[in-house]
Amino acid sequence: MARSWFLLLPFGLIVLLGSVAQAAVVEHTFNVGNLSISLCNKTARIITAVNGQLPGPTIEAREGDTVVVHLINTSPYNMTIHWHGIFQRGTPWADGPDMVTQCPVQPGANYTYRFNVIGQEGTLWWHAHISFLRATVYGALILRPRGGAKGYPFPKPHGEKTVILAEWWNDNIYDLERKAFREASTLRPADAYTINGKPGDSYNCSDANQTYKFQVRHNEKYLLRIINAALNTPLFFKVANHSFTVVGADASYTTPYETDVVVIAPGQTVDALMVASATVGRYYMAVSPYDSANLPNPTFSETNGTAVVEYVGYTGDEQPQLPPRTEYNDTDTAFRFLSNLTALVLPGKPTVPLSIDTRMFVTVGLGVSDCQPEQLQCNRSTTHFSASMNNASFVLPSTVSMLQAHYRNKSAGVYTRDFPDRPPVIFDYTSNVSDNGTMQYTTKSTKVKTLCYNETVEMVLQNTHLIAKESHPMHLHGFNFFVLAQGFGNYNETTATPQFNLVNPQERNTIAVPTGGWAVIRFVANNPGMWFMHCHFDAHLSIGLAMVFEVKDGPTEEASVPPPPEDLPHC
Ligand SMILES: *[C@@H]1O[C@H](CO)[C@@H](O)[C@H](O)[C@H]1NC(C)=O
Ligand SMILES: *[C@@H]1O[C@H](CO)[C@@H](O)[C@H](O)[C@H]1NC(C)=O
Ligand SMILES: *[C@@H]1O[C@H](CO)[C@@H](O)[C@H](O)[C@H]1NC(C)=O
Ligand SMILES: *[C@@H]1O[C@H](CO)[C@@H](O)[C@H](O)[C@H]1NC(C)=O
Ligand SMILES: *[C@@H]1O[C@H](CO)[C@@H](O)[C@H](O)[C@H]1NC(C)=O
Ligand SMILES: *[C@@H]1O[C@H](CO)[C@@H](O)[C@H](O)[C@H]1NC(C)=O
Ligand SMILES: *[C@@H]1O[C@H](CO)[C@@H](O)[C@H](O)[C@H]1NC(C)=O
Ligand SMILES: *[C@@H]1O[C@H](CO)[C@@H](O)[C@H](O)[C@H]1NC(C)=O
Ligand SMILES: *[C@@H]1O[C@H](CO)[C@@H](O)[C@H](O)[C@H]1NC(C)=O
Ligand SMILES: *[C@@H]1O[C@H](CO)[C@@H](O)[C@H](O)[C@H]1NC(C)=O
Ligand SMILES: *[C@@H]1O[C@H](CO)[C@@H](O)[C@H](O)[C@H]1NC(C)=O
Ligand SMILES: *[C@@H]1O[C@H](CO)[C@@H](O)[C@H](O)[C@H]1NC(C)=O
Ligand SMILES: [Cu+2]
């Protein structure tokens, strides 16, 4: 336990809570395999799922616990699991992204993920981090305070409800992805949005089993743990006749924020209190898409997913009420919600770094590139989509994981240390053409940004408008970051700096960079390893909207990448 004690020290939070609760080991076996399911279709089909469940099992732990998950892959596909939002300090081999921190667990093989939950409380989740299989391989990861629910920085709710939002395709998602890759085409929109694995009855699914039901008691207060597990779609979330008090996001407590709509991008979580204060009855909970591209003919599914909130004691059979619809292109509502959250400042919690060692300005967006050799059905006479950060379009290595190459000090042929701090060309990022095309044409590479242990980083994320402007949900592995400011248009340091929130900026692991706009984030590189940063739209990640931070070892053994676990999969 020597390592754990060292890791505890920087976190005054734990000292503050001063609980005598024993740290426990939370152990699960995840059998990833075929599940035959009939969802919104009388004909059953086979999906990939954990322990035959959709969503997969919920992991519940307390701050300070150790989580151990034995992954047994009986599916036909290569598999890895990512523990989204967990810092993995001291356990970088357990992070999970395919070919970044590990080779995949091949069909018939197994691997044990082991990590400690240190200094984190709130709602996180886990999901497959290989191909598009997270469409059906996902679940909640709930972190309670050491002393349990009485340790919340808000009055203990009467109950808690996990609300996992996702997208559902009627076809095999792996096959859809391979097809899109071979043809260099885009994935078609989902057939349904789901709440806790069920689409609800706005989709011609007459079967009552297709609607998830939440039971509540009149006047009781519930903590909703909302997770957006959708592959490609930010969502508006509402419950008819009810409003929310947001108390957390991405497992960081927030200043209580009152709202009747929650806006949540893929990869994000929101903890919100909801009082069952309406008339005893039945109400729809509904999710509908936020299409930040605001295209005249939206390419996404315009339907919405529903669940039912039913009051105990209600005996009627009226059709529940729907909440008022949020327009798919309502960027004002999205920005109001996403930009207004602030952190709940608690003694002992890390605060925003004020001195910066490394400043990066990173453009994020779409472009075009040549067909790759493996894209056999790619039409070579037409250009096709690519995505990039600072015009570098990321591809995964194929022979060894980046963390293995880093650990063995053998990066040659696996990655290069030249991820740029600036884009190659400065132009009007709100324009849909770059001055000479340089920012539109991208080439594939595996570039990392190397950081010294403990370096502080400020990154301006600037969305571009090339091909399309969109709100890209940028997710960083291994760290939370502080969001100092965000806005629309081109980032202007002179006007943005005075807006920086250095007092109580929201802390997140995924930032929905405003569409056609920018966001400024800061983090401390106090976690040695290889940490993926990428758009949490799988449709963009797969075409290169990613980079990796290589964080060097610190001065002590505890601040160094440990040897890999014995069962780490080989390629
Ligand atoms: C799982 O389903 C696939 C079809 O999607 C099938 O080819 C395979 O044999 C099944 N595997 C098992 C173990 O049933
Ligand atoms: C339902 O499943 C059948 C058999 O797989 C398929 O032919 C049909 O298109 C599906 N219906 C929908 C609405 O996806
Ligand atoms: C996990 O894999 C190892 C090595 O192949 C094997 O010996 C072991 O039986 C497997 N365990 C399970 C539970 O499948
Ligand atoms: C439901 O089915 C009807 C008739 O088959 C069709 O017109 C309608 O578009 C369907 N609605 C949805 C949301 O799929
Ligand atoms: C609905 O679910 C229940 C319980 O799982 C099951 O007994 C019943 O057969 C299902 N109904 C249909 C139409 O699938
Ligand atoms: C959900 O979709 C239906 C149409 O299928 C629409 O009538 C309703 O307004 C939508 N509700 C929300 C909350 O978006
Ligand atoms: C949203 O789209 C509708 C048409 O689909 C359009 O009338 C409206 O102006 C758009 N709103 C914004 C804010 O662009
Ligand atoms: C939230 O942000 C918007 C700007 O987008 C601002 O107008 C509004 O007053 C802020 N406050 C609240 C409580 O929404
Ligand atoms: C585009 O402009 C940049 C400078 O603005 C220059 O470095 C680059 O070579 C130009 N590229 C092409 C293809 O003209
Ligand atoms: C890393 O930063 C922390 C907080 O500023 C400091 O306490 C620690 O001594 C630093 N460690 C190293 C090796 O610089
Ligand atoms: C940034 O804002 C300042 C103050 O409004 C203005 O003078 C300057 O021209 C702007 N810079 C750019 C590059 O637009
Ligand atoms: C599965 O992983 C192995 C090891 O990395 C790799 O050789 C193989 O090509 C992968 N299979 C697929 C279908 O991607
Ligand atoms: Cu994106």
Description:
- With 571 residues, the protein is mainly beta.
- The protein has three domains: 19-147, Immunoglobulin-like, CATH 2.60.40; 154-345, Immunoglobulin-like, CATH 2.60.40.420; 358-559, Sandwich (Immunoglobulin-like), CATH 2.60.40.420.
- Helices cover 8% and strands 35% of the residues.
- The chain has helices spanning 2-8, 12-17, 173-183, 331-340, 402-407, 493-496, 538-541, and strands at residues 25-37, 45-50, 59-62, 66-73, 81-84, 110-116, 122-128, 138-144, 159-168, 192-195, 212-216, 221-228, 235-239, 244-249, 252-259, 262-264, 269-275, 282-289, 305-311, 358-369, 384-389, 392-394, 443-445, 448-451, 456-463, 473-476, 481-488, 506-508, 510-512, 517-524, 529-535, 546-551.
- Strands 10-9-12-17-14-15 form a six-stranded mixed sheet, with no helix packed on it. A six-stranded mixed sheet has the order 21-20-25-30-27-28, with no helix packed on it.
- The chain binds 2-acetamido-2-deoxy-beta-D-glucopyranose (12 copies) and copper (II) ion.
- One 2-acetamido-2-deoxy-beta-D-glucopyranose binds at residues 72, 110.
- Its cofactor is Cu cation.
- Belongs to the multicopper oxidase family.
- This is Laccase.
Which regions are unreliable across 5 or more consecutive residues at pLDDT < 50?
1-20
Question: How many distinct beta strands?
Answer: 32
If classified by CATH, what would the architecture of the largest domain be? Sandwich
**Major beta sheet, strand line-up:** 10-9-12-17-14-15
Total domain modules: 3
Which structural category fits the helices and strands? mainly beta
Mean pLDDT: 93
Cofactor: Cu cation
Function: Lignin degradation and detoxification of lignin-derived products.
GO molecular function: copper ion binding; hydroquinone:oxygen oxidoreductase activity
Protein name: Laccase
